[in-house]
Each structure stands twice: as C-alpha cells, then as structure tokens.
C-alpha cells in the first residue's frame, strides 16, 4: 500500500478528453478547430507514450496539451498522477490541487493529493484532503489507511487506530495496515505500562507484566517466582493461578500444574482454560475419560475454544471412535482455521477409513498451513 498507481485515470482521460461525440452540434472557427485537433493529437500521443512506458515523453505531451486547455481538471489529475508515480510529490500535489479547484468531485485528485501531502510531511493538509476523498467515496481502504497514518503523524493515535481498523474491515489481508496497527497498539501499550510503573512500581500488575515478559522469553523459573509473589500479594485475584499452572504445565510439572488449575477454579468456577489445562494433564497421564470430561467442561464454559475440540478429537481417535473424532476435529478446523494440527489427525482418520481423496485434501491443507506458520515465524 505504500506505492499505489493511479488506477482508472487512463479511462477517465479517454472519456473526458476524447473527440466530441458524433452528431454534436458545435460550430468552430478554423483556429479553434486546429487547436482542438492539436489537443486531441497531444493527448493520444501522451497516452501511447505512457502505455509504452515512455513516461518523460508522456508527461511532455500532456503538459503541452494542458497549455491548450488549461481548465482541464482531468489533465491536471493525469499529470499529477505521473509526477506521483515518479515520486515527485511536490509537483503532484500542485497539479492535484488545481484539479480539485476545477472539479471538487475528483476523488482521485483528493485521494492522491492527500497521500502526496503526507509524503511531504504535511499531515494537517493530508487530513483535510483525505477527509475530502472520504466524503466522495467512503469505502476505499487506502484512504482510511493513509488517513490513519496522517493522524498517527499528527500524534493522534486513537483516531489513527479508528481509521486503520476501518481499512482492515475493507481489506483484512493488507500487511501494511496490520503492521501499522500493531506498531501503534504496541506504542500505546508501552506508554500505558510505563505510566503504570511510574505511578505504582510495586503493584502486582507491574510484576505481572514482568512475569509475562519472562514467560515469553522462556525464562520460566523467573516467571514462576514472580507469579508466586503476585499470588501472595493478591491471593483472591483471578487469573494468576491459571498463569502459574500453565507455566508448570509447560515445564511438565504436572502435580504443581494441577494444583494451580484447581485453585483457579476455586476462585473462578467458569475458567474454561483451567478446565482445558486439567484435560491436558489427564491426557498426558492417559486418563482419557478424565481428559474428555474436562475438555467438555471447557467447551461448556467457552464454546469457541478450538483447542478443546482438538483434544477431544485426539481422545476419540485414541479410543477408536472415528465418527466422534471427525466431528470434534471438524469443529476445531472451523474455530481455529489457521491451526494445521487438526488436519494431520484428519488425514490419519480418512486414510484408516479408506477415503483417499479426503485424506489427500487434509494432508494438503496441513502442509499449506504448516508452511504459512513457518513463514510467519520467519517474518517475526
């Protein structure tokens, strides 16, 4: 999204700058006729040069045509577009603004003048121009993206987030929008956390941030010690026993993990993740009945917990109940569409059932998702 061509402008020029329609009643003097023919010739030559990639020649032809029709808003937009694509943002902005004076309804001129202004670090001008573009066409993801970036540049992160989220609604796979949102959210969280540490440095919430940081860095023993200290300070606060139990489970300290999950359920009987933790422990101990019971309790509390359906699928597969395993795993794929794990087991079940086409499809999906996960980890 950082460098976008001016799509649609060639069509716009053809419509607005072509010959007069057949049968049009127009009386021209000889000089006027000659001027019109020269204009049309220059425009056609400019369009051919642009199509062939001879942009210097195209720009020269369009500028010559503009001298013959200086009030042509479409030509101003076209010339502005050529300057924009050459990263000549000051010249682009000048022509786009002239086009808007002549035709205030020119969406392309409003949109790309705003982007050009931002390239020139004129965020207030960008906001004005892109809000104009937004009023002309409200469902353009790029306008929302660049307006969000203009608000970010003018130190208004909340409005930036609002616009970027609108852009994401319109184009949910745009990497630039996702990156910008993540960056702004991260900066806002850093500011909030810094202020929290400044106001109450000994607060258990500050310790929680440190514990989460150490857990992410795989410094599990340090994170465990911090969570124990937090629980001493706030013994009735929900969430911390589960977090400690999850760390114990990660390091395969199953008795300690079970104790913490049960303590969490004492404080919060609706903790789906604690039920899922107990189910995982039972599965590790090959207590498949207990694993299934706890997984089902987790689903009751949180029906969209895809991991619990995946675990049920594994349990049913172990017990040889392929129909129930298929049902649970298909739930898991719907709830966690980017997780390759259910497809690996589905492939095994379909193979055992002799359904080779479905097995091949499951394997293909597993490989694709696994590769996508690998690419994502490399990007990070």
Query: How is the CATH topology of one domain named?
Result: Serine Threonine Protein Phosphatase 5, Tetratricopeptide repeat
- Structural class by helix and strand composition: mainly alpha
Main sheet record: none
Q: Judging by the overall fold, what is the CATH architecture of one domain?
A: Alpha Horseshoe
Q: Which residues sit in consecutive blocks of at least 5 with pLDDT less than 50? A: 1-29, 375-380
Number of strands: 0
- Put simply, the count of helices is 20
| Superfamily (CATH H level) name of one domain | Tetratricopeptide repeat domain
Shape: elongated
Estimate the helix proportion, in percent.
Answer: over 70%
Mean pLDDT: 87
First CA to last CA: what distance?
20 Å
Q: What is Rg? A: 31 Å
Order of helical and strand elements:
HHHHHHHHHHHHHHHHHHHH
Strand content: under 5%
CATH class group of one domain? Mainly Alpha
């Amino acid at each position: 999204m950082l460098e976008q061509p001016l799509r649609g402008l060639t069509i716009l020029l053809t419509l607005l700058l072509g010959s007069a329609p057949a049968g049009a009643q127009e009386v021209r003097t000889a000089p006027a006729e000659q001027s019109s023919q020269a204009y049309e010739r220059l425009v056609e030559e400019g369009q051919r040069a642009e199509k062939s990639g001879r942009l210097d020649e195209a720009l020269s032809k369009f500028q010559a045509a503009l001298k013959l029709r200086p009030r042509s808003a479409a030509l101003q937009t076209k010339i502005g577009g050529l300057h924009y694509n050459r990263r000549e943002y000051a010249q682009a902005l000048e022509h786009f603004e002239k086009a808007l004076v002549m035709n205030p309804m020119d969406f392309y001129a409003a949109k790309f003048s705003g982007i050009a202004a931002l390239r020139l670090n004129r965020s207030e001008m960008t906001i004005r121009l892109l809000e104009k573009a937004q009023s002309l066409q409200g469902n353009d993801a790029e306008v929302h993206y660049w307006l969000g970036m203009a608000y970010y540049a003018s130190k208004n992160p909340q409005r930036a987030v609002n616009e970027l989220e609108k852009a994401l609604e319109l184009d949910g796979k745009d990497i630039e929008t996702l990156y910008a949102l993540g960056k702004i959210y991260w900066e806002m969280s850093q500011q909030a956390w810094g202020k929290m540490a400044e106001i109450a440095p000994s607060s258990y919430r500050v310790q929680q941030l440190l514990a989460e940081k150490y857990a992410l860095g795989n410094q599990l023993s340090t994170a465990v010690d911090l969570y124990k200290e937090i629980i001493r300070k706030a013994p009735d606060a929900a969430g911390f026993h589960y977090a400690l139990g999850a760390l114990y489970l990660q390091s395969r300290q199953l008795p300690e993990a079970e104790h913490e999950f049960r303590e969490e359920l004492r404080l919060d009987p609706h903790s789906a993740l604690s039920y899922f933790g107990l189910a995982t422990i039972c599965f590790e101990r090959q207590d498949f009945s207990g694993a299934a019971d706890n997984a089902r309790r987790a689903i009751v509390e949180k029906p969209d917990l895809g991991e619990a359906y995946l675990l049920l699928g594994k349990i049913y597969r172990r017990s040889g109940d392929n129909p129930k395993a298929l049902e649970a795993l298909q739930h898991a794929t719907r709830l966690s569409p980017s997780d390759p794990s259910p497809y690996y087991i589905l492939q095994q079940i379909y193979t055992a059932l002799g359904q080779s086409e479905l097995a091949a499809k499951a394997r293909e999906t597993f490989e694709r998702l696994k590769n996508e996960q690998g690419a994502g980890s490399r990007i990070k």
